[in-house]
Amino acid sequence: MKKRLAITLAAAFFAAAALVYLYFTGEGEGAGIPCVFHQLTGFYCSGCGSSRALRSILHLDFYQALRYNAIFTLALPLIGAYFGALFLSYIRFGKDKISGKIPMKAIWVLIAVALAYGILRNIPLFSFLAPVNLTG
Ligand SMILES: [Zn+2]
Predict the structure, then answer these.
(1) Ligand 1 center to residue 121 CA distance, Å?
(2) Is residue 46 exposed (0-12), middle (13-18) or buried (19+ Cβ within 10 Å)?
(3) How close is the Cα of 4 to the center of ligand 1, in Å?
(4) What mean pLDDT value characterizes the chain?
(5) What residues sit around ligand 1, an ion, with C-beta below 5 angstroms?
(6) What is the residue range of 12's domain?
């Protein structure tokens, strides 16, 4: 029990530290997570632009965040709610009582939407979905 609590608190600490680090580093300073898929293929995956979007959100620039990665920006409240509930579950019960309550159908829908987004943002007609820096 105490070991799980310590791991949970350590994970929360490192997540908070990562957000602080991301907030105080500028774009192109190496704070983002490089995308291996993009480096190998030149195509954008569903996650491309997510760390830049998160940095924009931390600076309250939500429009730029949407331009970097719309699906990540729109899903972030759900992601935050899930990890917040998971964190509280580990604090209160010492185990995950959240993940089993999420319907598999919802998970499959999210996976399908993410895959479709990853495909569409590489098609010229939907180039507005590709990660774009509006400030230069
Ligand atoms: Zn990517």
Answers:
(1) 11
(2) buried
(3) 32
(4) 88
(5) 35, 37-38, 45, 47-48
(6) 2-129
